[in-house]
Amino acid sequence: MSTASLEKSRPTRTHWLITLYAGGGEFCDGYILSIIGVALPLLTADYHLDSFDAGVIGSASLVGMFAGGLVFGYVTDRVGRQKVYLFDIAAFILLSAAQFFVTDPWQLTVVRFLMGIAIGADFAIAGTIASEFAPRNSRGPLLVIMVTMWSVGAAVAYVVGWAMLSSGHDDWRWMLASSAIPAVLILLLRFGTPESPRWLLSKGRGQEAEAVLRQMLGPGASLDDLEADTASRTRYGDIFRGAYLRRTVFVSVFWACQLLPIYAITTYEPTILSSFGLADGNDSYLGSVVVQIFFVLGSLSGILVINKGRRTLLLWSFGVSAIPLLGLAALAHPSPAVVIVLFAAFGVACFSSQCLQAIYPSELFPTGVRATANGFATGISRVGAAIGTWGAPVVLDHSTRLAMLLGAVICAIGWGTSYLLAPETSGLTLADASAADTDHRPRGRSRARRDTTSTPPSPAVKEPS
């Protein structure tokens, strides 16, 4: 009988379903975090909010994601992927509905904060569970599709918001509560998702892990290629020790640098487009929908190059993203068409590497702390995103061009961090990519250094010095 391997198999129906169900959570995340951008101008007018209060409401979910990522990543490594996978979506439903009934801005702030906790948990689990099921050569493309669902959710949020602008006095309530609808569908689909065989094996539950693999790959499925990836315990402090500290810093910083301009622009996109000359009201929202479509196309474009080089994709993405933002900062009175083109160019360039937010944390850390690292990076990255979202209305009140310049500076910081710290993990198994015993050599001459007295040499992640 031939032996089937999880790392070497071709994607099966189960692989695709797990990826799409994980992507469903990303869709809800993108929808929830973007619909506030459509609702906020209406909410501001209803409650006569100043820019500070509007920024607090806009960033509340991001602060919640900080807490949710820090806590529930670790919880996921302790109790299992499947349980958290269902809990966070159930929370989406209840909290989405609760937004309709708030009577004061502080109440909405609290609800949005709690939603952020659930979203932070989902970010920690979605990339983890999808990567642990994905075969080696298909991991990159599958996670590109998963992460693209965030952009799809954001685009749909703007379409729904635009369509609901004339629904009446409480437009913003219906907009915010509408996120319960996709969350219900995703919860129903996620029921029956199997537990990760890697996690089961790491907890000594080999028979259950083998049963999951046989259900996916047939009776000849083998656990052999998973053994090396599960020799780690779940200890939060491990992601701050040795080689993993460097990786934790890298993932947290590059992720924050990607999200700060994205969330600032996405949350206040209608306001920004209006300040550049697009008419207020429906025209600015329609412009936002057009820009969001390019964000989706940019996210999907990562599938073309993800297996050719994670590091190269990240560097090009940061470098090219800064150019249209600099153009928006430099042009005194650009035409509406130029504004749309520059924002579209930013979206394609920046979103092309969004998949790395799920891929790098999943590949650079072993099974015992994979969700912990994912959650920690999620939390830290949202500090930057929250600062950008809270500070954006203040900066925009002063100068839209200054806001665009600051976005370009953040992209430059992300490029510099990635140039110094980004490793290359393309084509490696999760066990090899997450191995700690890597020799840090100058760029182009990195090679693994293994203890030959314990295990035979195998490829390891190449990290620049």
Automatic annotation (TrEMBL):
Which cellular component terms (GO) are annotated to the entry? Answer: plasma membrane
Span list, region Disordered:
432-465
Protein's cellular compartments: Cell membrane
RNA-binding listed as a keyword: no
Database matches in InterPro entries: MFS_dom, MFS_sugar_transport-like, MFS_Sugar_Transporters, MFS_trans_sf, Sugar_transporter_CS
GO molecular function per UniProt: carbohydrate:proton symporter activity
User: Which Pfam family is an annotated match for this chain, by its short name?
Assistant: Sugar_tr
Q: How does it sit in the membrane?
A: Multi-pass membrane protein
Q: Does the keyword Transmembrane apply?
A: yes
Give the highest taxon in the source lineage: Bacteria
Keyword field? Membrane, Transmembrane, Transmembrane helix
The UniProt entry, under PANTHER family, shows: PLASTIDIC GLUCOSE TRANSPORTER 4
Q: Which family does it belong to?
A: Belongs to the major facilitator superfamily. Sugar transporter (TC 2.A.1.1) family.
Protein's name in the database: General substrate transporter
Origin organism of this chain? Streptomyces iranensis
